[in-house]
């Protein structure tokens, strides 16, 4: 496999291990639930494998397309996800008071998961364009310090806000579903790309203050969100009410002990733990594989993060590098947040554990993200090789020119 560094090989291997763990855990956590509902014991795992195969096929397409076509299609990504989110608003199905899914025959699609990747693709494309044009990576400073007329001022506003415009629009629609956790994710990672692209410190500080103030306001203005934040400090104060999920999750994790109760032997999946196959899949896994298994999964996500960053650092092209950074952070940080939520260190937000939680669109999106990382690394290294050959040819031309020999530049 030419152009594939060891860090990418390890990243793909880690992804494969996480996928296998996810398949085993989903079967273990859903077979009783499926039988209890009067259906086949293989209902959830069958759907999971179908989405996995679809994700692998889509990832293969992403690798074959290459990053140039992905970047050129950033507008199409945005428009497609935007229309799907609008469709959810008017024709979606509601689960637990949130309207997030579209039915596709026997299966459902959650467009907000696709919005996470669309936002990163968009922001990486426009920030890379600024870097290539040697423009400053700013939002407010460049507008306020550029003398111009009203018409040019408006154009300046659009120009400076363009990289974050797509994620902001998508996050606003998702927030209305309502889904504050996913909306925050859609905005958070494009914001990190600004920092990685070289945003000035004062603007980073202003962005953090704005995000904290806005997030705090949205958290306290809703009684439901405020209750979730408050119960985090002592979930056992209301074990049958607001703290029920966290208490059950902590009990499941703790009952696994050091070595676990054994594969398929956990009892909390027998409808004792809410959302045992989605938000709290890690709790089921921890009960069956114990402290050792829990730490292994944590290490796998940390390894994914390190390998992804290693791949991104080797890329010299701004777009490919930012895309790999963004997608690596998207998968790794979501994993860290979910695991922290399961052990009571983070509010219950509904953010799934990548590759392990049940959720067709989430799995599809994560596998596609790995395909995009793979494609970006291959494309970036190919471009670097081409640029290196061009530099060598120019250097050789410089040596041959004084002797009057004919140039052989084919580019």
Q: Tags for this entry?
A:
411 residues; mainly alpha; disordered C terminus
Quick structural overview:
This protein has 411 residues and is mostly helical. 71% of the residues lie in helices and 3% in strands. It is globular.
Describe this structure in words.
The protein has 411 residues and is mainly α. It folds into 2 domains: 7-72 and 237-388, no CATH class; 76-221, no CATH class. Helix content is 71%, strand content 3%. It has 14 helices and 3 strands. It has helices at 6-36, 43-65, 67-72, 74-91, 111-132, 141-144, 150-175, 180-197, 201-221, 223-231, 244-255, 281-314, 318-342, 360-400; strands spanning 93-95, 98-104, 107-109. The protein has a 3-stranded antiparallel β-sheet, covered by helices on one side. A hairpin with a 2-residue loop joins strand 1 and strand 2 (98-104). The longest helix has 41 residues, at 360-400. Residues 404-411 have low confidence and may be disordered.
Counting helices, strands and paired strands, the structural category is mainly alpha
Number of domains: 2
β-strand number: 3
Based on CA atoms alone, the radius of gyration comes out at 24 Å
Describe the secondary-structure layout.
Blueprint: H1 6-36, H2 43-65, H3 67-72, H4 74-91, E1 93-95, E2 98-104, E3 107-109, H5 111-132, H6 141-144, H7 150-175, H8 180-197, H9 201-221, H10 223-231, H11 244-255, H12 281-314, H13 318-342, H14 360-400
Helix pairs in contact: 1-2, 1-12, 1-14, 2-14, 4-5, 4-7, 5-7, 5-8, 5-13, 5-14, 7-8, 8-9, 8-13, 9-10, 11-12, 12-13, 13-14
């Amino acid at each position: 496999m030419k152009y594939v560094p060891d860090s990418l090989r390890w990243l793909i291997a880690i992804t494969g291990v996480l996928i296998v763990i996810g398949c085993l855990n989903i079967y273990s956590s859903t077979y009783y639930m499926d039988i209890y509902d009067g259906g086949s014991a293989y209902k959830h795992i069958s759907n999971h494998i179908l989405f996995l195969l679809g994700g692998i096929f889509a990832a293969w397409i992403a690798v074959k397309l290459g990053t140039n076509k992905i970047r050129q299609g950033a507008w199409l990504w945005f428009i497609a996800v935007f229309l799907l989110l609008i469709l959810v608003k008017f024709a979606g199905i509601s689960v637990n008071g949130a309207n997030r899914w579209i039915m596709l025959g026997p299966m459902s699609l959650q467009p907000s998961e696709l919005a996470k990747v669309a936002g990163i693709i968009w922001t990486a494309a426009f920030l890379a364009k600024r870097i290539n044009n040697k423009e400053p990576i700013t939002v407010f400073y460049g507008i306020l310090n550029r003398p111009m007329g009203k018409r040019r001022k408006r154009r300046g506003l659009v120009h400076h806000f363009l990289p974050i415009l797509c994620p902001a629009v998508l996050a606003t629609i998702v927030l209305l579903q309502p889904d504050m956790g996913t909306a925050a994710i859609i905005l958070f990672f494009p914001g990190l790309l600004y920092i990685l692209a070289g945003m000035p410190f004062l603007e980073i500080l202003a962005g953090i203050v704005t995000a904290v103030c806005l997030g705090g306001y949205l958290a306290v203005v809703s009684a439901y969100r405020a209750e979730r934040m408050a119960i985090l400090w002592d979930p056992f104060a209301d074990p049958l009410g607001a703290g029920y999920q966290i208490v059950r999750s902590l009990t499941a994790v703790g009952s696994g002990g050091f070595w676990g109760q054994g594969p398929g032997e956990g009892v909390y999946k027998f409808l004792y733990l809410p959302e045992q196959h989605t938000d709290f899949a890690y709790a089921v896994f921890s009960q069956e594989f114990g402290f050792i298994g829990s730490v292994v999964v944590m290490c796998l996500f940390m390894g994914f993060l390190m390998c992804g960053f290693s791949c991104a650092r080797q890329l010299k092209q701004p777009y490919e590098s930012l895309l790999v950074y963004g997608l690596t952070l998207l998968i790794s940080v979501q994993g860290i947040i979910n695991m922290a939520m399961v052990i009571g260190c983070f509010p219950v937000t509904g953010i799934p554990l990548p590759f392990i939680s049940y959720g067709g669109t989430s799995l599809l999106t994560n596998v596609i993200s790995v395909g995009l990382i793979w494609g970006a690394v291959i494309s970036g290294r190919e471009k670097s090789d081409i640029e290196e050959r061009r530099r060598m040819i120019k250097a050789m031309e410089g040596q041959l020119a004084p002797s009057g020999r004919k140039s052989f530049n084919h580019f």
